[in-house]
Amino acid sequence: MVGPRAAKVDELPLVENLSNEVFRIYDGDGQTMFQEFPDLFCKENIDNVRVIVEDGKPVSNINYLIRTVSIYGCKINVASLGAVATLQDYRGRGYASMLLDDCVNRMINQDAHILLISGDRNLYRNIGSTPAGLMYKYVITDSSKSNINGADSNSLCNNSDFCVRPNSYNESSFSFMKKSENRECSRRNDKQYRIRELDIEQCSNEDLYKLANLYRQENVRFVRHYDKFYELLASRKFLRKKTAQKKVIIIESKTGFEAYFYMVIEGNQGIIYDCAGSRELIINACAGLIDKYELKNIHGRLMTYHKSAINYCIE
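Predicted structure:
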């Protein structure tokens, strides 16, 4: 056994094989782990790709990435850890625990303030990790399949009527059903909005700048440089099935972009991952997109500081 140590550049294909063997085991899986997490598994982050080598190959692997997070203007260093994998024949030897201890010690020396972990195993609990924070889940459904208040899916009517009902996730979840009644719809602040899908690969530099500027206005966000922001939107991140589709949706008014969101469609379900701008507009826009993309529902999340959006949901 050799390690824990950093993977070597020429070992990255072996690390990819290891990760895929553990996490990509179904025929319908849409991309490799390296495609889903390009910023984690890359030459620039090679020192934080930690491995244990046995029989001439990496057999256990933990990876992390340290990034700056801005919280209402205050910046801290946040380590994100994930893709923890050990080959079946080498499990039960304590390799993951050894790698985790190695990673934590390195993070401390690298001035990381907080560690975010993907998972809730005893492996992480044993080092003192605990679930933290609160997140609200919402689900928008449409039983009528009619256009939102008579509008087409490329326009946005505000103050649409939703039914709020308890959701089975937990007490911090909401579910919405679009009402089928056809009512006249007012525009928020007398603005009219348009929804359109953006092709990132064909996107103009002007539109990319508008997206990045929207993201930079978020009160809590990762500090992303322009090129990394583009890589996130252009990557296959979150496309976990071969049949999945990625949609980058823009909500704009005459004065510019008001919101955007990155939605993955799998079957008849949409899941919002990355977003910025008005959450109320995003929630409202989803009702129209259910019709456009013939979806059964769209899932999204709100943080506790999205107070106006939470109030909008439960009113």
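Summary: The helical segments are 12-23, 33-36, 95-109, 122-125, 205-216, 226-234, 279-292, 307-314.
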